[in-house]
Design brief:
The protein is α+β, with helices and mostly antiparallel strands and 348 residues long. The strands form three sheets. A seven-stranded mixed sheet has the order 9-11-8-12-10-13-14. The protein has a five-stranded mixed sheet with strand order 1-2-7-5-6. Helix 2 runs parallel beside helix 3 and helix 4 packs across helix 7. The two termini are 29 Å apart. Bound molecules: magnesium ion. Magnesium ion binds next to loops.
Length: 348
C-alpha cells in the first residue's frame, strides 16, 4: 500500500524513535487527535513527563501511571535482557514521579517459532525483578505473530503507583538555584549495546547499567527539597536536561569535567562519531534539588549501591532560560543541544 503513495509523501524514519526532537514530533502526531488529554489537574500527555497522574476525588492521593514498549536487539545483551529492561523502565519511570510502582501489566508479542527456553529466561528476568521489588503482575496479554512478520519478541508494560497530591515532582518544576545531580556514569546501556552489535573489543567489560531504582529512590524518604527527577533513557542526558530547561523555564549550567562518562563509553563514541551526552542509560537518575536539601540527598543516594558515584554536575539558573549550557574545563561555554534523532534503532 505504501509503495503506491507519492514518493514525496512523508514517512516515519528510524530517527523518529531515537528520543530526540523527531521523536517528540512523532509523539505529538500520534496523540494530536486525542481530545481529552489529562484527568482534572493531573499530569497528562502534553507534559512529556516520565509518567502521568490521575488525581483521585475525595482523596489526598493520585495514581501515577506509565507505559513503555520494548524492542531491543539483541534480546540478551551484556548486563541484562528485555525482561529486566521492561520491568526496570516502567518501575523507574514511576519512581521518577516520586511514587512506588505497585502493579504492572505485561503484553508479550512473540514470533512463531521462538524457543520456549528463551521465553522462559526472559519472563523469569521480568517476573523476578517485579517480585524482588514487591510489584504485582496483575494483567497482560500475549500475541503470536506469523514467522517473519516480527523479529523474535517485543514487550509492552504499563505500571501504576500512588503518591500524595502535595508531592509535586515534575519536569516543569525545576527552580533557579537547584543543584543538578546525577547518580552515576552515563550512557553505559546504549554504549554496551552498540559495542556488542558492532563487535567492538574494548579489552574491558562494559555492561548495560540496567537496574531498578525503586529502592534507591525510596531511601530519599519524604522527597523534601526534590523538585524534579528523570531517568536519562533514550536521548540521554542532553534530551532530559533540555526538557527540564524548556518546561521549567530555567537555564541549566553544567560543568563538563563533573559529568561522569566512562572511558570505554567515550572510546565507543569516538570510534562511531556519537555524542556521549545523547546515549541512553537504564539505571541512572537525574535530580533537581534545592540548596538546603542537597547534602542530605547526596548522602542518601551515595549510601546506596546504585548511587555510590552520585555527583553534582551543575545548577539551574534564571539566565539563559530554556537552554542547557556546558562549561568546558578550559573555560569555554557551549550549548548542549537536544539530539535531533540519531538513527540507532532498538536500544530499549
Ligand atoms: Mg523516564
Amino acid at each position: 500500500m505504501q509503495d503506491q503513495k507519492d514518493s514525496d509523501e512523508k514517512v516515519v524514519l528510524l530517527s523518529h524513535g531515537a528520543g530526540g526532537i523527531l521523536q517528540e514530533e512523532l509523539i505529538k502526531f500520534v496523540t494530536s487527535s486525542a481530545t481529552v488529554r489529562k484527568v482534572g489537574e493531573g499530569i497528562g500527555i502534553d507534559a512529556f513527563d516520565d509518567g502521568a497522574t490521575v488525581p483521585l476525588t475525595d482523596s489526598d492521593y493520585e495514581i501515577v501511571m506509565s507505559a513503555d514498549g520494548h524492542t531491543i536487539h539483541p534480546l540478551f545483551f551484556p548486563g541484562g535482557d528485555i525482561g529486566l529492561l521492561s520491568a526496570a523502565s516502567t518501575i523507574n519511570d514511576i519512581a521518577m514521579m516520586g511514587a512506588k510502582c505497585i502493579a504492572i501489566s505485561s503484553t508479550v508479542f512473540v514470533e512463531e517459532g521462538f524457543w520456549f527456553s528463551e521465553l522462559e529466561k526472559i519472563m523469569k528476568s521480568f517476573n523476578d525483578a517485579l517480585g524482588s521489588n514487591g510489584v504485582a503482575l496483575v494483567c497482560g496479554d500475549t500475541k503470536v505473530i506469523p514467522k517473519g512478520q516480527l523479529d523474535q519478541l517485543m514487550m509492552s508494560t504499563t505500571g501504576i503507583g500512588f503518591r500524595p497530591k502535595n508531592r509535586y515532582i515534575a519536569d516543569n518544576n525545576v527552580k533557579p538555584g537547584d543543584n543538578i545531580i546525577v547518580t552515576g556514569p552515563l550512557g553505559d546501556h546504549e554504549a554496551a549495546l552498540i559495542a556488542n552489535r558492532h563487535g567492538i573489543d574494548l579489552k574491558t567489560e562494559l555492561t548495560s547499567d540496567v537496574a531498578i531504582l525503586l529502592d534507591m529512590i525510596e531511601s530519599l524518604g519524604d522527597f523534601e527539597g526534590i523538585h524534579a527527577m528523570k531517568d536519562p533513557t533514550r536521548g540521554g542526558l542532553a534530551s532530559a536536561l533540555n526538557q527540564w530547561a524548556q518546561q521549567s523555564n530555567v537555564g541549566i549550567s553544567l560543568n563538563e569535567k563533573e559529568i561522569p562518562i566512562r572511558t570505554e563509553v567515550r572510546s565507543i563514541c569516538d570510534i562511531l562519531g556519537l555524542n556521549p551526552y545523547h546515549l541512553a542509560s537504564e539505571g541512572k537518575a537525574l535530580l533537581a534539588v534545592d540548596a538546603e536539601h542537597t547534602q542530605s540527598v547526596l548522602e542518601a543516594l551515595r549510601s546506596h549501591q546504585l548511587g555510590k558515584d552520585t555527583i553534582i554536575v551543575g545548577v539551574a539558573q534564571e539566565e539563559n532560560s530554556g537552554m542547557v549550557l556546558i562549561k568546558s574545563e578550559y573555560g569555554g561555554t557551549k550549548f548542549m543541544d537536544s539530539p535531533y534523532g540519531e538513527p540507532i534503532p532498538r536500544v530499549c
